[in-house]
Amino acid sequence: MTGKGERVRVVGWVNSIRSVGGIVFLEVIDGYRMQLYTVVAKRSENPEAWRAASDVKTGSAVVVEGVVPSKTISRRGLEVHPTRLEVVSEPEEVLPLDPSEKTPALLDTIIEHRYVALRTLKQRAIFRIRALAVKAARDYLESQGFVEVHTPKICGAGAEGGATLFQLDYFGRRAFLAQSPQLYKQMLMCGLSRVYEITPYFRAEKFNTVRHLNESWGIDAEMAFISGVEEVMKLLEGLISHVFEAVKSKAEPELRALGVKLQKPRRPFKRLTYDEAIEVLRSRGLEVEWGQDFGSDEERALGEAMAEEGYDAYFIVDYPWSAKPFYIMRRGELSESFDLDYRGLELASGGQREHRYRELVENIRLKGLNPEDFAFYLKAFRYGMPPHGGFGLGLDRLVMVLVNARNIREVVLFPRDTQRLTP
Ligand code: ATP
Ligand code: MG
Known about the structure:
By secondary structure, this protein is an alpha+beta fold. The chain has helices at 47-55, 107-112, 114-117, 121-143, 182-188, 229-250, 252-258, 274-283, 296-308, 357-366, 375-379, 395-403; strands at residues 7-20, 23-30, 36-42, 61-67, 78-89, 147-148, 154-155, 167-170, 173-177, 194-202, 215-224, 270-273, 313-317, 330-331, 334-335, 337-342, 345-352, 388-394. It has an 8-stranded mixed beta sheet, with helices on both faces. Helix 4 (121-143) crosses helix 6 (229-250), helix 4 crosses helix 7 (252-258) and helix 4 (121-143) crosses helix 12. The structure holds adenosine-5'-triphosphate and magnesium ion.
């Protein structure tokens, strides 16, 4: 904390200017902290600094040296009386949005000019919380022995078939951008039994929703020598709880700027079977056929039902195998899989994988795929592949929940959707 009478050096941007009589008030936001300053330049106190302050334009990058007075007159931020004020860069044009937040900006304007929007406490809070969530997830997974890995994003085959992949030309061969690290993290289970990766996912569907992007980020984990899918769910539950706890305790100014009261989800998270979920949905008048995956209407209705029971976070378990990818382990018509939803938003999918070579090949065939296309993957299952499982957790979706955003584009600096390729 900065104490009264202390000398300070402030670097940041001028968000607003007010001038009365012989005094200029500059509202300055710090370069990276959650800190606003009111620089109060008085002609009577320091004519040189006052003159410099009088010439400043809104949006300028400034370096201010000064003193925190013992008696303050400004209402917002930390008051600083300048002894020196230097403009290190002036804007060429009027700013595209009001960084003092008196006039709220449209989301489209924010996305177009995110770097300027980061001069507001709200925008800055979102991305500081995002960074904190990533760090907390790393800390947690590493405390559980997981090793961070990096798998290729340019791939020769997709995880679940070809329809949703971006294709590219790889020296005359057909390649794809990775839609998930699924196949690679599983192959690693043959030699390193706990791995995680924080990675982009590329998906080529023409999404038009507030919860999908064409480039999104995931926190993927995979663990071997498990005795069942419950172990994977426990890990994910621990991870989510740790991230909430870390954000709650370390991002107090950020949460305040956003007006968010973060509640750690009740533990243990509810386990709801697919059949129970169908019953809940039918009792709410939704028509769902057994065997299909839930869409966002179903997800939202389930979220409401679970909230009424006091659960924000809940697992949906025992999905029909028909609704899940080939690598998920079968149990008759059902599967060893789960989704984790939070208030009607899918945050993660996971499960136990099929580690037995013959069964895996059979599963690939049953999904109408060609095992030969997966030869490089299947090979890893011939050399002592242990039982394993894991999950893919949507990082953008997790941040949406932490900052209470309605649109995924609010929590991604430069979103990639069907409309946006720049900035
Ligand atoms: P959804 O059913 O919501 O389209 P999914 O089941 O296709 O998602 P998974 O393959 O299970 O997605 O991916 C794991 C997690 O990654 C999801 O639970 C979600 O949180 C996140 N995710 C997947 N696709 C996207 C996307 N296009 N945009 C943002 N997040 C995504
Ligand atoms: Mg899923």
